[in-house]
Design a protein that fits this description.
Largest sheet: 8 strands, mixed
Number of helices: 16
Structural class: alpha/beta
Strand content: 15-25%
CATH class of the largest domain: Alpha Beta
Helix content: 40-55%
Shape: elongated
Oligomer: single chain
CATH topology of the largest domain: Rossmann fold
Strand order of the largest sheet: 8-9-7-10-6-11-12-13
CATH architecture of the largest domain: 3-Layer(aba) Sandwich
Order of helices and strands: EHEHEHEHEHEHEHHHEEHEHEHEHEHHH
CATH superfamily of the largest domain: P-loop containing nucleotide triphosphate hydrolases
Number of strands: 13
Number of domains: 2
């Protein structure tokens, strides 16, 4: 399929001549004569590259670029500004708002073609048309309250999926200032997510996200949140989290998001990008009630019942705890999996920075994680 180029210019001669040149070279050409038309066509048609004039009567090229970069649907589309504005300040502003390249008119056809090929070559790995992009399956892990082992669940589920499917898996913490994944794995300097959140949202794309992923010897890759409380300042960076969530599925077959507790502003923004949600609950009456509220909110928010998987984690061997059947009845929602108490195993895994499924791969807890991984991966087919 030929690569698609969107040419945006209010000069009809430029549209006709440049379009004809690209068509002769085998590209598919679409054109827009205004900034507003360009924004609409970019969202709907997902071109491989946009050749964009700056001086247009309705929305200039700078504003068009800003809006494209702020929209998760178009944020990673390659943009070359092609304009008569030759001042260095104009060029710097073009790069500042998010252009990949800047060319001034007039230019030789060979030079224009060379720039088109260079930008397409640099970005083709990450910026494919939506119709051709292989999208991963995103699983969000969440609980109604803290302290229920959401991070442990996300980590071990991710490893179990990777080892059972042999597919690429990313586990990402969306918990700035509350990260514990690096501590569980014994990894130093968990600053990857912070660097993304500190950047302009227009700079967040598959390439910049992949640069912050850390490979773990279990076979998964991780995007780590900082455990430093002062980094909770990024809890308000909801647009950045939404952009990251939209790009992660282009980087792996399975994405596991550690969403933490409750429906925070970050979670509300990122849940729409999840294909499935794993809700963690423990058999404690107050927690069961809170979890019921959470599930109701999720379903009311448009997540159908088939997208929510409830996982019951029992951490005590007390006979006083409600049974699996009792919890299910109180929730009014089916329980997909149950994890039996394993306090000694969990402690040893934490002490040695080895995930539970690797600490005792033939044990009952590992088997329970692999059974859950099987259910999740089968639903992704």
């Amino acid at each position: 399929m030929p690569e698609k180029i969107l040419i945006v210019d209010d000069d009809t001669d430029t549209l006709r001549l440049v379009g004809l040149m690209f068509e002769r070279q085998g590209y598919e050409v679409i054109s827009a004569s205004s900034g507003s038309q360009a924004l609409s066509m970019a969202r709907d048609l997902q071109p491989d590259l946009i050749l964009l004039d700056i001086m247009m009567p309705d929305i200039d090229g700078y504003k068009v670029t800003r809006q494209l970069r702020e929209d998760p649907q178009t944020t990673s589309l390659p943009i070359i500004m092609f304009t008569a504005k030759t001042q260095i300040d104009d060029k710097l502003l073009g790069f500042e708002v998010g252009a990949d390249d800047y060319l001034t008119k007039p230019t030789q056809p060979r030079e224009l073609t060379a720039h088109i090929k260079a930008v397409l070559g640099r970005t083709s790995k990450y910026r494919q048309p939506a119709s051709q992009r292989a999208r991963g399956f995103t699983i969000g892990v969440i609980a109604a309250k803290g302290g229920l082992g959401v991070t442990t669940m996300a980590l071990n589920l991710g490893i179990a999926i990777q080892q059972s499917t042999k597919k690429d898996v990313i586990v990402a913490e969306f918990r700035p200032g509350q990260g514990s994944l690096a501590l569980e794995l014994g990894l130093l300097k968990p600053e990857g997510l912070n660097r993304l959140l500190a950047s302009n949202v227009t700079e967040i794309n598959p390439a910049t996200i992949e640069a912050e992923l850390i490979s773990h010897n279990s076979g998964i890759r991780v995007l780590l949140s900082s455990p430093q409380p002062h980094d909770a300042q990024y809890l308000s960076a909801t647009s950045a989290f939404e952009t990251i969530a939209s790009h992660l599925p282009s980087l792996a077959r399975y994405i596991v998001l550690d969403l933490g507790a409750s429906l925070t502003p970050i979670t509300v923004k990122t849940i729409p990008y999840c294909d499935e949600l794993v809700v963690v609950v423990e058999p404690v009456p107050q927690t069961v009630i809170q979890t019921k509220y959470l599930i109701n909110d999720l379903v009311n928010a448009g997540l159908g019942e088939g997208m929510v998987q409830v996982v019951l984690i029992s951490r005590s061997r007390s006979s006083m705890e409600p049974s699996w059947a009792d919890v299910q009845e109180q929730l009014g929602y089916p329980i997909s999996a149950m994890f039996t108490p394993a306090p000694e195993l969990t402690y040893q895994a934490s002490l040695h920075n080895i995930p539970v499924v690797l600490q005792q791969p033939d044990g009952l807890t590992a088997e329970q994680y692999f059974n859950l991984a099987k259910k999740v991966s089968e639903r992704s087919l």
